[in-house]
Structure formats: structure tokens, C-alpha cells
Amino acid sequence: MHLRTLIFLTTAIVIIGCKEKKTTKPQPEKKETVSEKVATSTYEDVEGNPIELSDYKGKRVLLNYWATWCRPCIEEMPDMEKAQTILANENYVFLFASDQSMEKIVKFKEARGFQLEFIKFNGVYAEENVSALPATFIYNEAGEKVLRFDGGLKWDSPEMIEKLRAVQ
Asked: Which of 1, 37, 126, 136 is the one with CA 20 to 30 A from 94?
């Protein structure tokens, strides 16, 4: 009986930890500039080189917070890959940030074969107002956070592509 309870509780924690909210309605965000973000956020590429969001000023940025253990995160990656291809000429950069070790990120990238730009997040999710994964932020060319999406979504749907194209 105790084993069943333990399995149930473990399953419930995993399900709650990966918020799978199937909505494409963006939540309004307070505008925040990339330069404000840099003070609290530090990222690095898979080679260990430092990256700041301000490095991408002048481009639209889709920043997705994810984890290797998060099922909805992984399930939305193929759609994000397709969206990245569709928006290739739309001045977009797609970044996939995890706070896990660089070793885990690189192993995940090699095992899954996704053609996505994975980066390491060296901050704390709570400071980014992220309480569940995946969480995706969209920045405009001025570096302002303009949209936020929580949960796994269908990123290559015509409606989502239009929302991303409309970012000013």
C-alpha cells in the first residue's frame, strides 16, 4: 500500500512540475528592456562563452526556459524547430535556456538532435517570474519583453506564427 502511495505522489509531483497549459492566449507583460534583464541574467552558450540578451538587441528574441526532465518542454521542441524555420527571414533568434548543468544540456542536444540554440541559464527561475516549465518570453527588436507564454504549445500553428510575426 505504501508503494502505491509513493508512486502516486511521485507522479503527481512530476505532473504538477511541468505545467501543460494548452492555450495560445498570450499574457500581457510589463515592458522590460533587455538592458534591465542583463543586470540579473547571465547565460552561456554550449562552449561556455558568456551570452547576454543585450547581444541580440535589434532582433526579435524567443527565449524558452526548459529542462531535460520536462515532458511538455521536449514535446513542443519539434514545433519550435518548425516555427524557427518558418520565421528564419523574420529577424528572430530562438534561444532555449536551462539551468541544468552544461553536461546535461549538451548530452540532451546530442541525443535528441534538435537544431536549436541551447544555452545555460546561470540565474534563478524565480527571479524571472518562472514557476513552471516551459515558459517562453518574446522580446521585440528594442529588447522589450512583450509576450509571455506558459506551458507547452503548438508553436508552428498558423495562429502562433501570426502572433510572432506581429511582435513590434
From this structure: 126
